[in-house]
Write a structure and sequence with these properties.
Oligomer: single chain
Order of helices and strands: HHEEEEHEHHHHEEEHHEHEE
InterPro entries: Caspase-like_dom_sf, Caspase_cys_AS, Caspase_his_AS, Pept_C14_caspase, Pept_C14_p10, Pept_C14_p20, Pept_C14A
CATH topology of the domain at 2-100 and 172-255: Rossmann fold
Family: Belongs to the peptidase C14A family.
Distance between the termini: 15 Å
Shape: globular
CATH architecture of the domain at 2-100 and 172-255: 3-Layer(aba) Sandwich
Helix content: 25-40%
Strand content: 5-15%
GO molecular function: cysteine-type endopeptidase activity
Radius of gyration: 22 Å
Protein name: CASPASE_P20 domain-containing protein
Structural class: alpha+beta
Pfam family, one: Peptidase_C14
Length: about 260
Amino acid sequence: MENVFGSFNFLVKLLRNLSAGEIQAQLEHLGKKTDHHEYDCLVICLMSHGTIGRIYGVDGNSLSIHELTSIFTADNCPSLAGKPKLFFIQACRGEDYQKGYVIQKQSNETTQTKNDLTDQEDVDVDNFIQHQSSSLNLRLSVSDAKFIGFKLDNLLHNSIPLHQLNNVQLIPTYADFLLSYATVAGFRAQRDPTGGTVYIQALCKRLYKGLQNESILDIVTAVHREVSKQLYQETSCQLMKTNGELFLQIPEVRHTLTKKVCFKR
């Protein structure tokens, strides 16, 4: 990961074997005491043991992933507001094993998806949306402001006069996040003793191979496909618990991105 993101001109900082408290302290320093105005994107890779919604430090204590990502929300880290914040999390999210399901292979004709939407249809949809929007009578009142998620007194507290609301942009505090997990909630994330984790290996491979203008969502989708094709068998200490069964793994992505994110060398 260090080499991959270094090749995209990221300023990379590698930290190993941190306790839960040290992880928290490092991320809080990065979010609250670092100026990101000159940077376009933040990427954080967390590789450790974990469980549902939490990740462990080397001391055995765990941290809430939600609390860690909240350090970088727009209100907590203004210099990253409106910029993509990408988290890649290699950790188990439970103790279960993902079992496969057998389906019949289908011909290309039945599996291909055809996009029949024409440019004219796109224009018609846009016109419909514009027409619907213009027919609405939108007025901002005190009660409306509370309903849509912010308070007028907060705007005043931040020295934004009401008559200047048209000159500022309001964004959701949790906008522009992407969380890419090695596995879905409740299940283990597999690791090869010699080759490393299958998710990280597939992610690095795809980032290196990435096509020009390929978005991060395209990349993680390709990673999902690559990881899902592989069969796994638990190593020695757990082999008896699974009766030698083969199982699979599928990563998961959750995001609130508002723009297409591409990496360029």
